[in-house]
Amino acid sequence: MKRGKQGFLSALSVTLVIVMALMGCTNSGNSTKEAENKEPSTPQNQGEKTSDGFVLGEQPLEFSFYGHYDWYTMPEWGADLATQWIKENKSVNVVPVSSGGAAKNKMSTMIVSGELPDVIWMERGAEVEKLRSEGMLVPFDDYLDQYPNLKKWAGESTLDMLRSPDGKLYQFPNWYTTQPNGNAGYLVNKKIYNELGSPSLETTEDLYAYLKQVKQNYPDVVPLEVGQAAAGVDIMVSAFAENRPYTFNSMMAVPQGDQLVSLFTDPVYRELMQYVSRMYREKLMTQDAFTQKLEQVEQKIITGKVAVYAASSPTEFGSKGNNILSAEDPDAGYIMIWPVHKEGLDANQIFPGDYKQLGWNVSVITKSAKDPEAIFAFLDWFTGPEGQRTIMWGPEGLYWDGTDEDEAPLFTDKFTSEAKARDELMGATVNFQWNGNTVYVDQSKMKFESTLPAEKRNWETYWQSEVTWKTQMNTTEYVNLDPAGDSEEGIIAQRVFEIYEQTRAKAISMATSDEEVLAILDKAEADAQQAGYDKLLKYKTAKWQENIEKLQASK
Q1: pLDDT given at position 451
Q2: CA-CA-CA-CA torsion sign (167, 173, 178, 179)
Q3: Whose C-alpha in 84, 195, 501, 531 is 20 to 30 A from the C-alpha of 211?
Q4: Phi, psi of 206 (to 5 degrees)
Q5: What SS3 state is found at 136?
Q6: pTM for this one?
Q7: 403 forms bridges with which residues in the sheet?
Q8: How many helices (H) and strands (E) does the chain have?
């Protein structure tokens, strides 16, 4: 799974942790059928509260779980070492409800029938508020002090940002954080770079000159790979302005003073489009960016057929490619560079990626649950140190044994000597990471890595600590700006997004000059305004200002 949401997702940071291209694993059809046709649960099979609250393991707890994504299929609970341990030692069983590859239809059917699952894992925002406003969700406020992990690790500021208009908390965040994380940036083919004399790769002009060298000397190599749907282009906007993450592109809005204004008229975005269009015309970047599949991108990376790869999470393929290439040739592999910038800008104020305190998505507990407090108790344990150690690295005694004073796992020799088996275990639990605790996982991982000699350190973790985590911007104030899809602003947003996508592809791959790029963007602005763009921008501005007030109030 990947922490962080971007049409491509993009990203866990952390181990993912990024993990998170989120390719669902298949589970048994019998489990899904059982979840969808089960008899109403009784207090006995849901677990019971004691006078001190619900204690995991004292009574069995079973609840149904629905991942509200077309791509998501929950693996069988208990089929891997981690969830098997939880099932046996904490007496927790989670029964999957499948979207069947049609999440929107599935959700509508469940709402109409009044048969919601106990827990829904979904995006923050309009859909959560719809369920909440119709009285379908359980608030968590009465549980926060009794079960303290979420409150301790997420912090009041994050929880306040997640509160609904009625002031109550209904959302349990996933991969929330109080420190930078993320993988966005530039991957560079080490062998090609060294063979070309390791030239400067600091500015946009440096990059342009380098890509021309690659094209001339390596005709079978893609000079600049930008990934599926040219997603990597977006992170490159950071090169043309200080404090400018790609978030503003996906928002289709740019902050200017206390207002959000049009992306199409923004000088920084227009300069990016001209720069990228020029590279496309000169065949310095992927020519099939708008048609290639993700698997094709991966294949190019792991076979060394790319000189530079710009992406929101290049470390996933980069780590795999580095391991394969360096095993065959010690001089081959990948490195990451500090993000490039336009001449004259401060390199330390360039942020190709971002992170948000709220993390990625959320879990909500519906009023169908017989014992919502017991479910919250489990989710809170799951996001705490013991739960995170177990779901990330398996039960105690295999890859970790005991903890230090910070509750970080003490990894065993098998953690490094049995890397393949360890990675298989971690891969098997990726789609159970619903309540990821970024700070705990990252700090545990980094603490262990710091004890290893350089040659044994994890490639991805090394570059996260050296480059990517230092170059991600906190964009928490820009969360939850999207209107409900069936509202007037939501309908406008869909039309503007269509204009944005069509314009982006046309400006990059069809424009024959810088002037034509600007003409295409001017036409997009006119079309967007006709569709109601100004009304959408006013809506987003109001939501943004509400976020700022919440963040200031919680300081």
Answers
A1: 86
A2: negative
A3: 501
A4: -60, -45
A5: coil
A6: 0.80
A7: 409
A8: 22, 15
